[in-house]
Design brief:
The complex is a heterodimer of chains A (about 325) and B (about 375).
Chain A lengths: L6 E12 L2 E12 L3 E5 L6 H9 L6 E6 L8 H7 E4 L11 H11 L7 H11 L15 H13 L5 E5 L7 H16 L3 E5 L3 H7 L2 E6 L2 E6 L1 H8 L1 E8 L5 H8 L4 E7 L2 E7 L13 H10 L4 E7 L3 H9 L6
Parallel strand pairs in A: 3-7, 3-8, 5-6, 6-7
Antiparallel strand pairs in A: 1-2, 1-4, 8-9, 10-12, 10-13, 11-12
Helix pairs in contact in A: 3-4, 3-5, 5-6, 8-11
Chain B lengths: L1 H19 L2 H23 L3 E6 L8 H10 L3 E6 L2 H9 L5 E4 L12 E7 L4 H21 L6 E7 L7 H32 L2 H5 L5 H29 L10 H26 L2 H18 L11 H7 L3 H14 L7 H28 L3
Parallel strand pairs in B: 1-2, 1-3, 4-5
Antiparallel strand pairs in B: 3-4
Helix pairs in contact in B: 1-8, 2-6, 2-8, 3-5, 6-8, 6-9, 6-10, 6-12, 8-9, 9-10, 9-12, 9-13, 12-13
Classes of the chains: A alpha/beta (about 325), B alpha/beta (about 375).
Chain lengths: ~325, ~375
């Protein structure tokens, strides 16, 4: 089946309540074809509920979900053929071999018997598990299981693959390998939706991100745009003498400067978009900063610029309080 | 087509899982073999034989002493009835093993020896032989107490042409327990395991309807159950017992499959509700074994206590056991015979199927 909808995924006004408790409160987002879209959010923010609603495992209290234009509940069989799912817990039959796990998936998804061996072999090769195809999954490492789960999700050639915390609990090498698979999926024209708690991962992989908090979408955009809008660049300088008070006053009046402070000769200036202003890269503020320092009669011995990290964006939007 | 393809896929996968982890199959074989030993111990220790006792009125002078002699034999559970027909009726309903009529001419100076007539339900040789051993001893004891002696003979009338041996009788019961516990375990663990290991998502997200999953799991369970039943039967035959007749193997197969589907379905329903292997496993034993023990494993249901008999008649185990006994030996151990047993068993199977489909469908539905 070739889906012909404009968007791979279209979520409008999505709400999910359990009694009086609202897990999702009017979620809106769309994922374009061939895009890698990340859902970020603290525990309990509604990520897994969103995935369950997308796959039709849960019923929305209000709003709509369309997977390539299909309703995942009313057109469940068609929608599920387009979806490839890598759940967080891998959910493999550990008593069985890797090949048997893949064969079961192939049977469930109606891959013709004649095509199954070649398809299974190709997926094992993709997951670099060809040599272990006839081994029980219980003998696999966490990374191997995760790779096998991804191979299983891709076996029926889905158009939209969603991965729930795909690198949770795997080592650095396996994480890199999984990143390569995800990028390869995009290169192959697939749409990828992933949730992750690793912000470095989201930053490295995702074309766009949505940050969820308490069931609401609080920010959406490319990683660079989110950092620029919600993060802070920090300019740090070491002067040849203690920073004069007049310099600090001057620096605070510069565009984009949120805060300027000094401790002896060490000077620190935070630069951000600020409420209502357009984001600008931290480097743009360097020239006026240096002009102000030189105008004060000081010389600069050392200068550094630290660009904002996604972690800061995340914490700025969702707070620092622990979530269960 | 999606459904049939899905059911076939689930069936194959469950069989592969059963080959990898054959716990339910092993239990379904080991348990009945343990019971074989237990039953033999039961047989050695013995139980009292329900006996319908008719004393003609007016009672002969020696009647009371004859009843005492029978009671003192410590073999009979004497159940006095008002008429000979009532005694025969109890025998026909499977509520008594033997119908005894005390001789009306049981008095010193009578013409020749009096004859104690008894009609024996010899479908279970263990009970029948108890009667055959105990009656002469009771008569001897009675005679010895009479001044000058009082000759009494006996006349046995058997209900069936030949006795059914003890092992042949319990062989069928062993099959019942294999089907019962094996079915509950296999069905329950199969579906609860999907939830426990998280693979339920693989099934829920596949383009196959819920009924296909239930059908596939039932199919795999029937295959496993038949393998277990065949192994149990083979072990019993190797131990020297065999069914009285092999001519009705079709009926044996039919009742085995019907009962398997019923017990597998009940297991599936429980597994869908509990979703924990460690909850389903003890439940299968906790429910299955008591039901088995009250459902006539050692003799026809009517020979056991009234309360147990009433409770057993509510559940399908007694009917499965009765249908299997009939398929093997040709007699009905439940009053009502085929007209009662098959419809009740079929109704239970249909209800259990509906329960499994409903509970899995409910568990798998979007929430």
């Amino acid at each position: 089946m070739t889906p012909d909808a404009a968007q791979a995924l279209d979520v409008r006004g999505l709400e999910k309540r359990f009694g009086a408790f609202a897990v999702l409160r009017g979620l809106d987002f769309a994922v374009g074809r061939g895009e890698i879209y990340g859902l970020l959010g603290p525990n309990g923010s509604g990520k897994t509920t969103t995935l369950n609603l997308i796959s039709g495992l849960a019923e929305p209290s209000a709003g709509t979900v369309r997977v390539f234009g299909l309703d995942p509940r009313r057109q469940a069989a068609e929608a599920r053929r387009l979806l490839g799912v890598v759940p967080q817990e891998t959910a493999l039959y550990e008593e069985l071999t890797a090949e048997r796990n893949l064969a079961f998936h192939a049977e469930l998804f109606g891959i013709p018997p004649g095509q199954r061996p070649a398809r299974i072999a190709a997926m094992l090769e993709l997951a670099q598990l060809t040599e272990r195809g006839r081994s029980r999954v219980s003998t696999f490492s966490g990374g191997m299981k995760r790779r096998l789960a991804i191979a299983r999700a891709l076996l029926h050639d889905p158009q939209l693959v969603y991965l729930d915390e795909p690198t949770l609990g795997v080592d650095v090498q396996a994480r890199r390998a999984i990143w390569d698979y995800i990028l390869a999926m995009k290169a192959g024209g697939r749409t990828v939706l992933l949730t992750t708690n690793y912000l470095e991962e989201a930053s490295a992989l995702c074309d766009r991100l949505a940050i969820l908090d308490r069931g609401r979408l609080v920010a959406e955009g490319t990683p660079a745009a989110l950092k620029a809008r919600y993060g802070e660049s920090v300019v740090e300088a070491e002067l040849d003498r203690d920073a004069p008070a007049t310099l600090l006053q001057t620096l605070r009046t510069l565009p984009g400067v949120r805060e300027a402070s000094a401790e002896g000769p060490r000077l620190s200036v935070c630069i951000g978009a600020g409420p209502g202003s357009e984001p600008a890269p931290g480097g743009a503020a360097l020239a006026p900063f240096l002009q102000a320092v030189l105008a004060s009669g000081c010389a600069v011995r050392h200068l550094s610029l630290r660009e904002p990290a996604l972690d800061e964006v995340f914490l700025a939007l969702t707070g620092r309080g622990l979530r269960d | 087509m999606n459904g049939l393809r899905g059911a076939a896929a689930v069936l194959r996968n469950d069989l592969a899982l059963a080959r990898a982890e054959p716990l339910a199959t092993i239990l379904a074989v080991v348990l009945p073999l343990n019971f074989l030993v237990l039953f033999m111990l039961f047989a050695l220790s013995g139980g009292r034989v329900p006996a319908a006792l008719y004393v003609p009125r007016p009672a002969a002078p020696g009647s009371a002493q004859m009843v005492t002699a029978l009671r003192d034999a410590l073999t009979f559970d004497l159940r006095p009835v008002p008429t000979r027909a009532a005694a025969t009726d109890q025998l026909g309903r499977g509520e008594a093993v033997v119908a005894i009529t005390v001789p009306p001419d049981l008095a010193p100076g009578g013409d020749g020896p009096a004859v104690l007539a008894f009609t024996l339900d010899n479908e279970n040789a263990d009970f029948a032989d108890d009667v055959r051993r105990a009656l002469p001893l009771a008569l001897l004891s009675f005679t010895a107490q009479q001044p000058g002696g009082l000759p009494v003979g006996w006349r046995e009338v058997d209900t069936y042409r030949s006795d059914v041996g003890f092992l042949a009788y319990i062989a069928v019961s062993l099959l019942t327990v294999s089907i019962l516990v094996g079915g509950l375990l296999t069905g329950g663990r199969s579906v609860a395991g999907e939830w426990e290991r998280g693979t339920i998502k693989e099934l829920l997200l596949a383009p196959v309807p819920p009924w296909a999953v239930v059908a596939g799991k039932l199919g795999a369970g029937v295959v496993q159950g038949l393998v277990s039943a065949a192994l149990v039967l083979g072990a019993v035959i190797a131990a020297g017992a065999h069914p009285a007749s092999w001519s009705d193997l079709g009926s044996v197969a039919a009742v085995t499959v019907l009962a398997l589907v019923a017990f597998l379905s009940l297991g599936l329903a429980a597994g869908s509700l509990m979703r924990r292997v460690n909850s389903v496993t003890p439940l299968a034993f906790a429910v299955g074994l008591p039901l088995f023990f009250i459902s006539g494993p050692f003799g026809p249901l009517g020979w056991s206590g009234a309360a147990a008999s009433v409770v057993a008649r509510v559940f399908p185990v007694a009917y499965a056991n009765a249908a299997l006994q009939h398929a093997f030996h040709g007699y009905w151990t439940l009053h009502g015979g085929a007209a009662l047993v098959w419809p009740v068993l079929a109704a239970w199977t249909a209800a259990a199927l509906a329960a499994s489909a409903w509970s899995y469908g409910r568990a798998a539905a979007p929430h």
